[in-house]
Amino acid sequence: MSGAEVGGAEEPAAPRRLTHQDEAGNARMVDVSAKAVTAREASAAGEVRCSSDVIAALRSGDVPKGDALGVARVAGIQAAKRTPDLIPLAHPIAVHAVSVDLEVLDDRVAVRATVRTADRTGIEMEALTCVTVAALALVDMVKAIDKHCVIDNVRVTAKSGGRSGDWREPQPR
Question: Which has fewest Cβ within 10 Å: 62, 113, 129, 152?
């Protein structure tokens, strides 16, 4: 039930106020200065679907532009650190650790990242930005082989810390 029952009819719940809007409905950055600093971690995943020619080149190390997986890994790390420059309402927070894993599978490259901080707000956007930019860098590195790569299934897979506590993706995709 979403509201309280009054005389047998359910009373509608008070509308939930959006935290990133002011009273006039304008976008604003939430004030997190009163929140406690806590250890936080977020993981994200995604994939780059590509041709068998790309998979073969990645496995053999014959990508014309060079070390595609290494470049994608570094791009993801850089992106995690630059998230507030790209996402307008993301807070600049200290990124303390970033790990990026790219796994070459038979028909795609799985991209996974974990980002850690000790700060006042979550780090999910940094993990998502990391995965997305790593995937974009990979596409850039292999586009001479396959112009039709697809970045797909980018999502948060886990988070820990903060007021809302821990969460893990119910069923890996």
Answer: 62
